[in-house]
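Handoff note, outgoing to incoming analyst
You'll be picking up this chain. Sequence as last confirmed:
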Amino acid sequence: GGMAEQARTLIDKIKGDESIDLENDWKVVTMLIGGNDLCDYCTVYKKDAQTYVNNIQQALDVLHAELPRTFVNVVTVMNIPDIAKIPRTWVCDIAHYHLCRCVSYARDEAALAEIEEVNRQYVNLT
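Most recent structure output, in case you need it:
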């Protein structure tokens, strides 16, 4: 699911855990975001930078509204196109094909350049 749905799932799990005092325990949530969006950029949908930011904001709003005493770390996306530059073994080739095909096996330089530009926009807006 999307980030807001994932935040909702996390909140439900925390609320359902009897060892956590929701109101008094301090909590830390880390959101590592954007990599999957870029790795899937050439497939079903292309998530533009503003949609990406809106999804982050929705997730943060859900966490803020329902998780008191919580620090949220938002880790911006790394430079995903660098994955295509890493020397690979056959094991890496298989992993890259399944995990980040749009970058590791971009159809051409223009497709990779488009992902690089969107990656820059993601970073600049977050």
